[in-house]
Amino acid sequence: MDKNDNWWTRPCGGVDVLRQAVPLIISCGSVSLMNFTDRMFLMWLKDDSMTASWHGGMLFWAAVSIPVAIGAFVTTFVAQYHGSGNYERIGRIVWQGIWFGLAVMPILFWLFEPFAYVFVWFKHDGALLPLERSYYFYMLFGAAAVISGEAAASFFRGQGRMRVEMCNNVFCVILNIPLTYCLIFGKFGLPEWGLTGAVIATVACLWLRFLIYVILMFVQDYKSKKFQVVKGMRLDFPLMGRLFYYGLPAGLYTSIDTITFTTFVMMIGGLGQAARDASTIAFTLNSFTYIPLNGIGIVATSMVGNQLGRNRPDLARRATITALMIGCVYAGFFGFFFLFFPYLLLFPFMQYGASPGVYEMSVILVRFVALYLFFDTCAVIFMSALRGAGDTMFIALIMGIFAPLLPIFCAIGIYYFDLGVIWCWTVLTFLVLAYCIAFWLRYRSKVWESMRVIEKELI
Q1: Would residue 357 count as lying in a domain?
Q2: pTM for the structure as a whole
Q3: What value does the CA radius of gyration of the chain take, rounded to a whole number of Å?
C-alpha cells in the first residue's frame, strides 16, 4: 500500500495528528486532574467551598472570555504564518497578544463589583456568597497570566510543538496539587487558608506557566534566528488591529457561550445544595473529556491553519477528520465509564463529605454527560477546524443564536413550570446536539477552505 493511501502514515493521518494530540491530551488531562483534586480537597472542608470555587471560577472565565479568546486566536496567525513560510512575523503577532493581556487586567479589576453582583442577583444564600466573591476576586490576579499565557502558548501551538505545552502544563499541575493541599489545610508550616489558599496556589502556577513560555520563546528564537521574538516586542498597531478584526468574533462567541453557561450554572445554584453540588461534581468529571477534547481541537486548528497557509485545503480536511476519529475514540472510552460505572468515579467525593442525595443526583447527571459526549466531540472538532481557517463570524453567529436558548429554556422550566435540575441538563444536551449539527453543516459547505487571516501578499 502506498504511504499516502495509508490512514495511519499518510500526511495529516493518524501519526501526524496523534504526534500533536497526545501531548495536548496529556496536558489538558493534567488540568482536569488539577480541577478534580482541588474540588475534592475543598469538599473535605464540608462547607460550601467546593461549589463556591465552581461558581467563582465560572464567573472568572465569563469575565475574561473575550480577551482569552483573542489571545488564543494568535494560534491561527502563527499556524498560517508558519505554513506560508513567513516566520519573521510570528514573534511580532505573539507579542501583540501578550501586551493585550497585560493591558486588560486593570479593567477586569475595575469591573469586579458589577460582575460579582451576579451572585446576589441569582439569590445565592449567605454562607455561599462571600466564598464565591472571594474566589472570583483572587482569581482576577491571574487574569493577565491566563490571557497572555494563551498568546505565548500560541507560539508553540501554531508550529505544532505541542510537547512544549504538555511539559509546561504537567509541571505546573504537579506543583499546584500539593501546594493547593498545603495552603488549604495548613500543612508543612504553610498557613491554613482554606478556599483562599486554593485560589492563591492556582494563580501562582498560572504566572509560572506564562513565564516559562516566555523564556522558552526566547530560547527557541536564539537557536533558530528566524522568529524575531526580540525585535517583535514593540507594539504593531496595524497587526494588533488585524488580531482584533479576526479575534474579536472569536472572543464574542466564546463570551456568549461562557456567559450563558455561567448563567445556567448560577440558576442551578439557586435550586438547592444537592442540585448545585451534584452539578459541580458532574461537570468536574466532564472536564476529563471536555478539556482534553479542546486540546484535540487546538491540534485541528493548528493543522488546518498550517495546511491552508500552504494552500492545501485537501490536507486541512484530512486533518479534521483524523482529529474527529481520535476524539470520538477518546470520548467513547470515558463515556463507557460514565454510563456504566459512575459509582467508581464518584467514590472520592462520596467518601468525604457528600450526602446520599448528592450521590444519587450525581449518578444521574454523570450519565447525562455520557449521553451528549459524542455530539460534544463533533461540535468541538468541526468548530476548531473553522477557527483554523478564520471562519469566526459564522461561529459567532451560531453561538449568538443557540447559546442564549440555554438559560432562556432553563428559566422557563424553573420559574414557570417548577422543573428542576434534570430539566436543565436535558436542555443542555439538546443544545450540544444543535451545535454539532450547525458546525457539521458549515464544515461540509467547504466555504472555509478559501479563507485566510494573514496578509494576502504573504500567501
Answers
A1: yes
A2: 0.77
A3: 21
